[in-house]
Design a protein that fits this description.
345 residues, alpha+beta, FAD/NAD(P)-binding domain, Flavocytochrome C3, Chain A, domain 1, 2 domains, 6-stranded mixed beta sheet, 3-stranded antiparallel beta sheet
């Protein structure tokens, strides 16, 4: 999202950008997502949800996302739904493949499978979740996080910018992800195997301890990060009849549980089953993208460097302490990075 949006905007402004795509296809993790691009409806709620984030950067995303969404539509990006289905948020859902193809056409010179042959101006390498060493250093030393993203986002932008004097943002130990059915999964299963009903379940670790205190957030990202800290980096969602009947994702919790390959009878739990339990699902966190990264200013300039800009998951600290749309921040700051880079020429 960030790199293609930056290139498309730069080309729109008369530049001739080149996008170097490390992977074997364009689109990064945007192509693999449900492609809902959103912001909080109310500014105060954004701050409450992500209290550790950079308020200046948050304000830019909140104020400029609607403009960015209109821009995507204006260049032909196909909209699937014109709302998010969540009363707390506003935004649109795009067809991920169609959006990728639209941005590729608008970006112009895209070189797939090629390393950059010139010094980059805008970094949009997608964070460092694909690098086990960096994840162990900053997020979780045990290496229990499964990758729920493209395999090419491995900290290239982070390393390059640090070599040029860049500063790091807040939230380097945080990530966005989902608790997944604890099994191997393919890209096609990133969404269907996400067990997004932790707030309705009774949640235990392998020792039978209820490790999460308080109410699980609506995004459940807090529960995912807490799960990563448990023994073996996993947890059990235990469900009774009431929990199975709760609405989620246009259906019921029971529908998601039925597709989970790690569901078991309560008698198979490694601890005594709680009263009323009907089924349990073993889950493990999948990391989608990092939350911390390079510190940028509101012009997308990497703080501590000269002439270097960053957007997408390479730019950290926007949703620290909570969860906000990574695609929204990538869209907004991808466009801003192009505008700022050209303004400096």
């Amino acid at each position: 999202m960030a790199g293609l949006s930056a290139a498309a905007r730069a080309r729109e402004l008369g530049a001739v950008p080149v996008v170097y795509e490390k992977g074997t296809r364009p689109g990064g993790s945007m192509l693999l997502s449900s492609c809902v691009i959103w912001r909080f409806r109310d500014w105060d709620e954004f701050r409450e949800e992500c209290p550790g984030g950079d308020e200046t950067l948050q304000r830019v995303v909140w104020e400029r996302l609607d403009e960015g969404l209109a821009w995507l539509e204006s260049i032909g990006a196909p909209v699937v739904e014109h709302d998010t289905g969540n009363p707390r948020t506003v935004g649109k859902r795009f067809d991920s493949r169609g959006l990728t193809e639209t941005l590729v056409r608008a970006a112009g010179d895209l070189r797939v499978g090629e390393p950059a042959t010139e010094e980059p101006t805008i970094l949009a390498t997608g964070g460092f979740q694909g690098d086990g060493t960096l994840v162990a250093e900053h997020i979780h030393p045990a290496g229990s996080l499964r990758l729920r993203a493209n395999p090419w986002s491995s900290g290239d932008g982070l390393r390059l910018a640090l070599g040029r004097g860049a500063e790091l943002s807040a939230g380097m130990d945080e990530f966005y992800g989902r608790n997944m059915a604890d099994t191997e999964f393919s890209e096609e299963e990133f969404v269907p195997l996400a067990q997004l009903y932790g707030r309705h379940a009774r949640v235990y670790n392998d020792r039978g301890e209820k490790f999460f205190q308080g109410e699980v957030s609506w995004s459940e990202n807090d529960l995912v990060q807490a799960t990563a800290q448990q023994p073996e980096g996993r947890a059990w969602y235990v469900l009774d009849d009431n929990a199975l009947d709760q609405p989620v994702r246009g259906g019921k919790v029971a529908d998601i549980v039925a597709r989970a390959p790690t569901r078991v009878d309560p008698g198979e739990l490694p601890f005594p089953a709680p009263q009323g339990a009907r089924v349990a699902v073993r889950v493990r966190p999948g990391i989608t993208h990092t939350i911390g990264g390079l510190r940028i200013d509101q012009s997308a300039r990497v703080v501590g460097t000269e002439g270097l800009f960053a957007a997408g998951a390479d730019a950290g600290g926007i949703s620290t302490g909570g969860y906000a749309s990574g695609l929204a921040a990538a869209l907004v700051f991808g466009r801003i990075a192009a505008e700022s880079a050209l303004d400096g020429l």
